[in-house]
Design a protein that fits this description.
150 residues, 31% helix, alpha+beta, seven-stranded antiparallel β-sheet, globular
Length: 150
């Protein structure tokens, strides 16, 4: 089993990095991602006028367990979100390993999940992936990034 690499991307004050930037690069690199499962296991943010349904119900459901999406649903979710404070998005071909992981299980999560995208309010993103080419594409796209040990 290949081990994921972890890329840390820091947002600089004049640089706005949106989740859609990553999704576009990932989709262009691996069009099969359209068929994968997407799971949000941690989220804090603010909706915009495009959000469909009850944001409070959605927020509570994610933070109690997780929420599974397909590509269209995840795209709609992010279009309905104006600001993200914290996020953990898991993407995999199978949904078997998509679950909430404790901090102690973080290494297991990185080993099992094809792609993880995390955002922390401190202004940085962490992306892990089993695809070295994708990690390198992302590293080359975002100047303030580095590969760190898992």
């Amino acid at each position: 089993m290949s081990i994921n690499k972890l890329l840390k991307i820091i947002s600089i004050s004049d640089e706005s990095i949106e989740i859609s930037n990553f999704i576009e690069i990932i989709l262009n690199h691996n069009p099969e991602i359209l068929k994968y499962y997407f799971s949000i296991t941690l989220f804090d943010g603010i909706p915009n006028s495009n959000f469909k349904g009850s944001f409070i119900d959605f927020y509570n459901r994610i933070n109690e367990d997780q929420f599974l999406f397909d590509y269209r649903e995840i795209k709609d979710f992010f279009l309905g979100t104006s600001q993200i404070f914290d996020l953990l998005l898991l993407i995999d071909k199978e949904n078997y390993f998509l679950k909430k992981y404790s901090i102690e299980e973080e290494k297991i999560m990185y080993e099992n999940i094809y792609l993880t995208i995390a955002y922390f309010d401190g202004g940085f993103w962490e992306i892990s992936c089993k695809d070295d080419l994708l990690i390198n594409k992302l590293k080359n796209k975002f100047m303030h990034s580095e590969i760190v040990d898992i």
